Model the fold of this input.
Amino acid sequence: MSDPTSDSTTDWFAAPVTRPADDADIFHVDVAGYEGPLDLLLDLARRQKVDLSAISVLALAEQYLSFIATVRDKRIELAADYLVMAAWLAYLKSRLMVPQAPGDPEPSGEMLAAVLQFRLKRLEAMRDAASRLMNRPRLGLMVYQRGDPEPLVIERRRFWEATLYELLKAYGEQREKTVSTDYTPFTRTVWALGDARDILQRLIGDSFDWLPLDTYLAEYLVKPEHRATILASSFSASLELVREGQLELRQQEAFAPLLMRRRKSDSTE
Amino acid sequence: MAIDEDATAIAARNLRVLEALLFASAEPLSIAEMTPFLGDGANPRALLATLTRDYASRGVNLVRRGNGWAFRTAEDLGFLLRREHTEHRALSRAALETLSIIAYHQPATRAEIEEIRGVATGKGTLDLLMEARWVRMRGRRRTPGRPVTYGTTEAFLDHFGLESLADLPGLDELKGAGLLSGRLPPTLQIPLPFDGPLRDDEDPLDPDDTGDGEP
Amino acid sequence: MAIDEDATAIAARNLRVLEALLFASAEPLSIAEMTPFLGDGANPRALLATLTRDYASRGVNLVRRGNGWAFRTAEDLGFLLRREHTEHRALSRAALETLSIIAYHQPATRAEIEEIRGVATGKGTLDLLMEARWVRMRGRRRTPGRPVTYGTTEAFLDHFGLESLADLPGLDELKGAGLLSGRLPPTLQIPLPFDGPLRDDEDPLDPDDTGDGEP
Done:
């Protein structure tokens, strides 16, 4: 049995009329043809052959319950929906048969019956609306659009833009990309300030004679590539030593040799 | 006098332009789509009214479909032109009911459709209706779960020969009987199908919103 | 008298039927195809003549195509259905690179372009440059595989404001303009581009030569 609660592929035009109308054994055991309990109820209601607003809800509930009972006796699986509806209808039946006691907070049987009637009428109305829609002069069936439309032709023309500069730049970059360059990282000797200070201290020692910085550093200044860093670091270090009062610096004029000597401590003066 | 003659000539030309445009297109054209082709100061509505009148008695009529306008063969000639349709697949009952529920109750969520049908609606049914371009996702209802709201399209109006949703068959009776109400029993306020812009309780869809997942 | 009135009504109806038929048909209809839809004793030719006259001044005309008849947009309104859309777009980086290599190294084959760029050049890039009318196929190199040789066009010179290819800057100028860094091996040479007639190693293209296929 297919799942009756999901959409069946039943054709609305072909199938519904084939369902046996007012057949005495409407309870031939088949729920597969119904799209859920509401569909089944609507079908049962139609069999009362009256306006939906005049159907006997009690009779309808009984028919549904007996249908479900038959189906269950035959041990046919039923989707939960059908059983929930059966439970609700049993409740509806009981509410209809027992008069509403004053102060009863539960909904009255009449109200429940009205709800069911409304739902059935609404479903039927939608079915009716669907068939009225389908019977309208539909496009492609009764009404036609232009068979050979002449669509708008849009001619796209693209203008590409580029400047000579962009062109040349692109070329330059391409050519450079292909040039294989070996890159060797350039390492340079750098005298750290701390090292320069230590070396300077050691070289000057206790000499109290004015001597140019270059002379002190003569042995280190052999390699020309080291000259700049050595001089720079030593000079910085010497300034530091002057500030500390350990060294004296003197220069006669701009670019003249930088003379330095150990400062005589005040105590020795 | 000369100005009047000019005006007449311009109107005549604009009518020809509209005729050509509408004849050339298989799909309805909106006024916004037609306006660029008309001269400055043209009144497209008045021109369309003239064309509608001119063609009213002919074998081809100018009809309005939502915001669009299109030439369609006259309805009364349908039986004559009716062709053999082999590939026209009949819609399943589920699809038909779902379509009519969306049409009459829009904006409608899947839960509302299921409430009326009393059955779960497979996603395939809605997909099929959207594929047929009759149904579209409108937005998301501003309620817990943010369900997608569905509505009909202009192609729906076109296919079923409706100028607007107000032309839905039996709409007034259904309204009178309170059957367009989602609530029970019929409330005082009876909603009417609505395919306009988003309502207060609808959020727009994200650009990449693909609708509800499979339930 | 009554018969005449009937005849007029029948003719009017037949005209409507023809209008609808011709409008809805995907192809021009022959008289033989239309006749079954008309009443007995109808004169299709006379009806078609009437319709042709009725529509002669409208935006849509009834025209004859061989043995068939069809509605067509009036010729003077044909421009309506054709719109030109021009867009200006910047050349992609890949296209610029390819173009510059072709400019300097022409005649250049695709393989040569790829060797310099170091990446495969999609056919789309070359097509685009040819669509822009800046690059043309010159001929085919007389080497295995007979690859197409590409060169620039006069439109290229025109667009980039060059009198001739000799105006393309050489090595020193490129360096001077900062377009090539100083750290270049002395072996780097900028070739002299050549856009003259076919060289000795080039064969002319066949008239129907459409270039290389996709690699």
Notes: Strands of chain B lie at 29-30, 60-65, 68-73, 108-109, 135-141, 148-152, 202-203.
